[in-house]
Amino acid sequence: MSGGMRGGVRVVVAGAGLAGHEFVRRLLADPGFDGTITWHSGEPGRPYNRVLLTDLLAGHHTPEAVSLPALSDPRLTFHREPLSRIREAEFDYLVLATGADPVIPPVRGNSVPLRTLNDARTILRELNDGVRRVAVVGGGPLGVETACALAQRGVRVELLHRGPHIMSRWLDAESAALLADSLSTAGIAVRCQTEVSAATRVWPHADLVILACGVRPRVALARAAGLPVGRGVLVDGAGRSVGNPRVFAIGDCAEAEGGVTGAFAALEDARRAAVAIAAEVAEVAEIAEVAEIVAEAGISKLTQYSSPSPSGGHATLATIVPTRQPPKEGPAAQITRSALRLRTYGVPGADVAVLGQPLADATIALTDQRRRTRKALTLDGDVPVAAALVGDVRAAAAVARAIARPGSPVPGVPVALLTSAAGGGAGGFDSV
User: What predicted TM-score, i.e. pTM, was given to this entire model?
Assistant: First the structure.
């Protein structure tokens, strides 16, 4: 980059969710950045932590308490309206953090998605107005968390899922059956292989229907500008648009090799993009690997599994979070390392942790039908590469460490990992 851009680089950011907020915070804090940021929000009000929306439904936080920290800097201009179109003459770098839209099936009656803070407020108003029968459509992580949050409030909940079993993209049928039994014991009626829509004439008998049917990356802005899009905005390993090196896409709107990123994984995308832009402005020749960036910034492993909560503690995430880059060669190179931890709001036996590749074929599995627990571990030789824990996640910390550090020593008998209860708190995740 030419030296003439120093001191005047213009960065435009579209989107003020977790990814956009983290990018702006990171770039402003980088001593190598000397420029201005124009930041467009897609929603009214302050940026907030979308991960905590089910906490609102459970009554753990107020809507005001989930706001992200305010960012104030003379180099920053914040607009409370979305970016309407891309004009290349107005930026040196553009960062798309536009997020995703909820999938809405053809519906009727009193229904609302759960994607935004306004959606959560709508649901809370309905509950405060006396709604006591709620159906949740979608048996993925968000649907299960929502059902558990509502059950804690004493609401009668029906959970409907179009797949063969709940959490069908994360758990095998046996694990899902144990989870469904625990939910049923807590008063959550579970129905699978149910296609809910006005078209199928299948509709729940409920006062309120909450839609948790997945999301679609928001790519209209990028498509209108002629940027290559697939399901999301197509980017390379550094988060740059494959069609324009001055444009980055991060978070739910981005699609790199291996698919679209998940919610909180967006923070790693944001860190990478911020470092890349700051490095170019400072005319740094090479950019460190993501793992080195995280280490140099003093970001602990805990950050990868939890998010600061308004109370000062940490809220465990139910989202895909990269734990480390996969090896560049060898059989384990095909494993995509990620983590999921459900927040189940005190529903007994509903704890779930998935580490490594979801639905990986288990090498070792321990099932206790009476206690409704199942622990499955996938090995590549003697190296743990994936695990799924249902009902008892106390071994999650030890398993996560073993997957994230394949070169470190593991027990001589790998099954011992599944019986490890090292670390306390939320399944040991606070010690990772």
Answer: 0.79
